[in-house]
Amino acid sequence: MSDASTPKAKKITTAQEFVSQNAQTRQTEVAKAKDEPSGAERSFAAIQDNTFYKIMLDEGLAPQDKLARVTQALTFTDDRSEARENLNEFNAFKEYLQFERKRMAQEIIALTDTEAFGELKDVFEQINTALLTFEDQIAPLTDIVDAVYTLRMNGVTYDIFEELLRERELEKERTTKKADLKQTLSQLESKVRGLKTDNGMLREDKGFFGLGGTKKSALEKIAANDALIDEHTDAMQSLLDEIKILETQAPANSEFAEFAAEKEKLRELLDITSDEHKARQEALVGSAQDFIDTTENRVSSVLGHFTKMNGQIDNLDEANFTMRSMYAILSDATKQVDGANETRRQQIRSAIDAAESDLERLGQERLERDINDYISNLGRSNVDTTSVLAELTASGHRIHSMKDANAQQVAKTRQLHTSGVAGVADQLSTVLQAVSAAALGESSEAAKMSLERMNRTTSELGQREVIRVALGTKEINQDLTNALSELSEYGETIKAATHITREGLTETKDLLAQIERQTAETQAAVKESLSVAADVAGGKGGTRSPSPADVAQEAEERNAPPNPFGLGKS
Question: What is the pTM of this model?
Answer without folding.
Answer: 0.49
